[in-house]
Description:
By secondary structure, the chain is α+β, with helices and mostly antiparallel strands. It has helices spanning 2-59, 66-83, 99-108, 139-149, 157-164, 174-188, 199-211, 260-272; strands at 89-92, 95-98, 122-124, 194-197, 217-222, 231-240, 245-250, 254-259, 280-283. A hairpin with a 4-residue loop joins strand 6 (231-240) and strand 7.
Amino acid sequence: MLAVLMIFGLALVMNVGSVSAANTTNTTVQSHTTVQSTVTTSKNVTTTVKKTTTKKVATNSYGLTTAQIKDGLNRAQTFYNKNNRLPNYVSYGTTKIPIASFQKILTAYGLKIVVKTYANGWVTVKNLVYDHQDTSYTCGPSSLKMELSDYGLSLNEMTLASYSSSNSNVGTTHSGLINAVKKVNSIYGTKLSAWDSKFSSVGWAGLYKYISTNHPVILHIRSFLNPNTSGHYVVLMGLNMNSGLAKIADPSYGYRTLSFNALLTRMNWVVSTGRTTKPVIFVK
């Protein structure tokens, strides 16, 4: 009997030992699995960070710091807000980064230039009556005639040329056009004001807002017919802020559609050649 009890006790101890060993083994495996998972996860994170860093370095070949990139973004955004177009490049000292390359850098750093969209697309002046200039030097009075047609006035071009003191030697000056508006006020009882402005003072967004009130704007630009020697007056009558296009009534040609860049280049030409510093003329 004693022998049986000893055998039974020995078997019980062996079973308990087996269970303990099994549990210990299972715990170790689970712990090992958890550790392995953690290591794998850490490896993935490290890989992701490494790839992102590599992408930034490859894109940012100019070696810009984050602070420099944000500074460039602020300058580019300010330019866009003022001119309603992206700059051609972003400068850092003597280094000029093309805007397309700079935008890739911004994207790599999770940044971007905020570009506006305009739901209505084109905004155009509805009441303007086109006029073709009578002489080679009266594009100014012809443009003023179109401008005044928006206010219901139908005046003779050569009469306006007389009011503006236009002549074949100098054409028409800004002060001449402004004085012509004052003359019209005194004769017809209108209460219009006329003034000129730098483009930088209004920008495309400002012109868009102005034309949205159904009023055109006279622009002093580089001539299409004599681009090397002459300035020319046209009437800005429409803008599309989404596509960056402008419609003008050209008294020497008819209606034209130009890109913002092309039209601004023509305005900048009359400024750079000393003809005026204020190529935008308002009548209201």
